[in-house]
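Hi there,

I know you've been waiting on this one. I reran it after we fixed the sequence typo, so this is the corrected version. Both the input and the resulting structure follow.
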Amino acid sequence: MKIGELARQSGLNASRIRFYEARGLLHAVLRGDNGYRSYPPEALQVLRIITGAQKAGFSLEEIRKLIPADLNSWDHAELLQALRRKVIDIAAMEEQLRQSRAEIERLLEVIEARPADMACGDNARRVMGEVR
């Protein structure tokens, strides 16, 4: 299949497909005498795996290490280990986000607690004193 057809079917633009190919994520790309790329039928599946993995938080480097040149030769143990690591990473990010949210909510409370008769500059100094 030519790159235009692969782009149409995948919903990706041709430059993105070439980018994935250049990064070693898309294998078995043949070039005709005219220089045109020809992609195997499984290229569409690989692109879906790549975009899905990116949405799940995997970096391109992580994806590159996981996707075998031949889709029939997945390293089951390595795949499971990578997925487990990603779950741990996401849990850590969730905790960091929870802490950040709590800090911002506390800051909102401090700012909103400004006495009605307090000038803005004085309130800013009061808030800065409480943030430290």
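Quick highlight: The mean pLDDT is 90.

Best,
R. S.
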